[in-house]
Amino acid sequence: MKASRRNFIQSLGVGVTGLGMAQQATATTFEPPKSTKPNGDDQILFVGDNIAVSNTEFGKVRGFVLRGITTFLGIPYGADTSGKNRFMPPQKPAPWSDVKPAVWWGNTAPQIMEKRYSNVYASFVDHWNYDDVSEDCLKINVWTPALDTQKRPVMVWLHGGGFVNGNGIEQDGYHGENIARLGNVVFCSLNHRLGSLGYSHLKAAGGHPASGNVGNLDMVAALEWVKNNIANFGGDPTNVTIMGQSGGGSKVTTLMNMPSAKGLFHKAVVLSGGSLAGVNKEYAEKLGLKIMEEAGLKPGEIAKLQQIPWREYIDIADRAVAKMADEAKRLNIQRGGYSPVADGEYLNDGTFFSDANHFSADIPLMICSTFNEQSPSRTDATLESVTLADVKEKIKTRFGDKSGEIVDAYAKTFPKARPIELWTMILSNRKNAVAIADAKTTQKKAPVFLAWFGWQPPLFDNRMRAFHCSDICFWLYNTDLMLTHTGGGKRPRALSEKMSKSLIGFMKTGNPNGGGLPTWKTYSTQNGETMILDDVPALANDPDREARKALA
Question: Does residue 357 sit within a domain?
Fold first, then answer.
């Protein structure tokens, strides 16, 4: 097959049973808005005293209009989190009387920035965008087709980077201009507290009971801002979708299990991430006490901890994690550190989605992962020639004695796959995505739609594969903006149009059908209905089920 008509999963030797081109769904049809993009050499950027001015509950803001999309960057939704506000639930920003300029990104949340660009290939591929870093980081960005009363569906994007790194615009593919125009929707992205400044659980050390979840409470505050203000930006506060990738996917699933987030969003999308539980409360409390010890402070001296410079505090908190390694092993915690805490008050304890009466039961969920979240050979061509024996040896550090059985199971399921392809698929297995789909399905009140992204970019001598983050720009209609992920042009654009229109349909109705993909059936544990996203999209019934069994 030519690259423009290729389906990667079929090239690996999967049989056609359960993998067929379904008829296009017609239940909901996609009607794109009239184009607001200027023609020819017309002026495309507008900014001025009376251009793009909107009101918020805290004061007026002024943005700009670019290619017909009104844009606001860095609007405060919360107060500075430094000093007395550190480790505390977010506070509202102080009102302002002048018109506040909202034409540049808000500060990135505190995180280690040293050597951020040291890997030149990673910097090239993901085109990282980082700006000033400070604790005054609670800012939101808005892209809208118009400042009117139309009440468009709203998307709130939650960035990746685990719960430790990243920001709302770290990749060009995060931009909301194109999908706002394509779908006549409002797109928002935001920054919030990360790492130890967002998730140090200091309750046992005399701190606020919410301290282990303030980073997530920031997101709740941003969603409250959307509820109270987005109508002034042409959006509908009663139709909000939250969407995140990698760590952002886990932000989505944790928000779906936070009591304070109830009613603030109505649909959810998880890409290459997600979680089914918060951090062990016992571990988090002990880690909080270890932080105090490492800082040379006694329990109760939180005010002193709040005054330590943020960069110094991150180092203290990281040393505490290292000293808690044995305790993490005792509690069967694979990766210790800082992320939302299952305290039973601010974040549900127990397994997520286990309660059929929980508010999350009513929220439709779309889940997607990629074929090759990890691609070891991207910058090392020698790895393209590994053998099956090599692969079995290389995955031992992760899978131990089961490595041989796992490789053989994947080789049987994908008989035409090369060893390097099997290696990446095993490291990138979709066990977590399927587990989340299975758990959400048990609530039986809202549909789940599962996808597997397999589009292979023609870059790095075709060694990039469908890597972690590569699907984001397809969903957000940014394939010609994120050239280092796609190469640009009509081939990725054709798939992106189908995916983004399906996402827009999901935002509007909770059903992705009608956007150009084949009929996308709701997921069931029995059949494992999975939309394969590639040059030739197709619906499959759990094509890697037999291989995944070896991972148990």
Answer: no
Q: What is the largest CA-CA distance in the chain?
A: 68
What CA–CA distance (Å, rounded) separates 96 from 132?
22
**pTM of this structure:** 0.94
User: 306: helix, coil or strand?
Assistant: helix
Instruction: From 316, 310, 210, 301, select the one nearest 258 (Cα to Cα).
Output: 210
- Per-residue pLDDT at 16 exceeds 50: no
* Domain co-membership, 223 together with 270: yes
Tens-place pLDDT, residues 355-393? 999 999 999 999 999 999 988 888 899 999 999 999 999
Residue 39 belongs to some domain of the structure:
no
- pLDDT of the residue at 525: 97
Task: Indicate whether 26 pLDDT > 60.
Answer: no
Phi and psi dihedrals of 245, rounded to 5? -125, 145
Please tell me the distance from the alpha carbon of residue 117 to that of residue 133, in angstroms, as a whole number. 15
For residue 348, give both structure tokens: 């549900």
How many structural domains does the chain have?
3
Closest CA to 191 of 134, 152, 267: 134
Domain boundary among 352, 385, 402: 352
Give the pLDDT band of residue 35 (cuts 50, 70, 90). very low
HEC letters along 329-385: HHCCCCCCCCCCECCCCCCCCCCCCCCCCCHHHHCCEEEEEECCCCCCCCCCHHHHH
Torsion angle of C-alpha atoms 86, 260, 166, 335, degrees rounded to 10: 90
What's the pLDDT at 18? 53
Q: How far apart are CA 48 and CA 31, in angstroms?
A: 33
Amino acid at position 69, single letter: I
SS3 of residue 239 by DSSP: strand
What's the token pair of residue 102? 């909202």
Whether the Cβ atoms of residue 203 and residue 209 lie closer than 8 Å to each other: yes
Please identify which residue in the block is written with the tokens 């992106």.
496
DSSP 387-445: -HHHHHHHTHHHHGGGHHHHHHHHHHHSTT--HHHHHHHHHT--HHHHHHHHHHHTT-S
255 shares a domain with 326: no
Q: How far apart are CA 138 and CA 522, in angstroms?
A: 36
Question: 322 and 423: one domain?
Answer: no
What residues make up the domain containing 383? 3-31+366-549
CATH number at residue 395: 3.40.50.1820
Domain identity same for 244 and 323:
no
**Mean per-residue pLDDT over the chain, rounded:** 93
Question: Are residue 294 and residue 191 in the same domain, yes or no?
Answer: no
> Are 269 and 252 in contact, with CB atoms under 8 Å apart?
yes
Residues 6 or more apart in contact with residue 139 via CB below 8 angstroms = 74, 75, 76, 77, 105, 106, 107, 168, 190, 191
Among residues of the chain, what percentage have pLDDT more than 70? 94
Q: Where are the alpha helices (DSSP H) in 184-246?
A: 195-199, 214-229
Q: Does residue 338 lie in a domain region?
A: no
Last residue of a domain, one of 352, 382, 412: 352
Residues 311 and 458 in one domain: no
Residues 200 and 100 in one domain: yes
Residues 502 and 410 in one domain: yes
Identify whether 47 is part of a domain.
Answer: no
